[in-house]
Amino acid sequence: MLDRIDRGLIHALQIDARAPFSKIATTLDTSPQTVARHYQRLRAQAALRVVGLPNPEPAGWSQWLVRLTASPQTAQRLADALVRREDTAWVKLASGGTEIITIVRSDTAGGAPSLLLRDVPRMSTISSVSAQCLLHMYVGGRIGWRRRASTLTEEQQSSLGVELPDPEEAPTAREALAAAGDLVAALRHDGRASLTQLASATGWSPPTVARRLADLQVSGAIFFDVEVDPAFFGTMTQAMLWMSVTPSYLHDVATALSEHVELAFLASTTGQANLVATAVCADPADLHRYLTHELGALAGILSLETAPLLRTLKTAGPARPS
């Protein structure tokens, strides 16, 4: 389990992912050496990672939630193949290991990804496939899981605000991304890489890196995601939830759900189930309590499908080395 400094550090990174250890240490009333030690321990033991990712909308991307069903003998191999693709994120095994759930990116806004148009039809081992386009993200992406951000006081949070240039003087998000070159790729692997390390990866000088990084941030072209194993927050049971919500209630239901600490992901989608979420609970009994008491108390939800998640093979950032 996480101690006070661990939780404060994770919360601080969610506010300012690139904040120096000295700044975080001042906020947590400890030493930079202690913060650095906790950071390295969390990286080694709790899969902590900070990744810089393009925001889909300004990047001109569409995102699809894809469900694939395959035989038990081939599901793991298929999932491993999806992990290796650059256009996938959040590859998960569900429903006894025969169902694979992943988010697939298309480089054309509104367009279906090549996985659906070209690659899936050639995979004879797949028995079923469905895909819903993600329309609006309520939790996930730049809006992080609330359970990770419940430690610091308002005063501590305000001390960690990111200082960025005047947005009126910044390029547009697409202009910033076009000029970023290898910088975005380097941030995808390590969002806390130093300016010197980023300069080495891009071939630019550190001042140029700093300027283009600021352009990416102030224009909203990228966001920083903090990844950490949810089990270290005492949550051992995860499930995907597909909800059919009366359209007139959809935004109100989603807004209410976005306040729930049990949900690590929430988005409206196309398809019969127009709201999808990932619930992260302590155990099956806690999931039951959440579904029956908190979710069940909301008007407008017509039907609910749940699928237990067994294993996460890939998160938002690139696949980790095996």
Structural write-up:
The structure is a single chain. The protein is an alpha+beta fold and 322 residues long. Among the domains are: 56-134, Lrp/AsnC effector binding domain/regulation of amino acid metabolism (RAM) domain (Alpha-Beta Plaits); 139-145 and 229-311, Lrp/AsnC effector binding domain/regulation of amino acid metabolism (RAM) domain (Alpha-Beta Plaits, 2-Layer Sandwich); 168-218, Arc Repressor Mutant, subunit A (Orthogonal Bundle). The chain has helices at residues 4-15, 21-28, 32-45, 56-59, 72-84, 114-119, 154-158, 173-180, 183-189, 195-202, 206-218, 250-257, 284-295; strands at 49-54, 62-70, 88-94, 99-106, 126-139, 222-227, 237-245, 263-269, 275-281, 301-314. The strands form two sheets. It has an eight-stranded antiparallel barrel. Strands 1-6 form a two-stranded antiparallel sheet. The protein is globular, with a radius of gyration of 20 Å. The mean pLDDT is 90.
Question: Kindly, what is the distance between the CA atoms of the first and last residues, rounded to a whole number of angstroms?
Answer: 24 Å
How many DSSP E strands? 10
Estimate the strand proportion: 25-35%
The averaged pLDDT comes out at 90
Estimate the global geometry from the Cα principal axes: globular
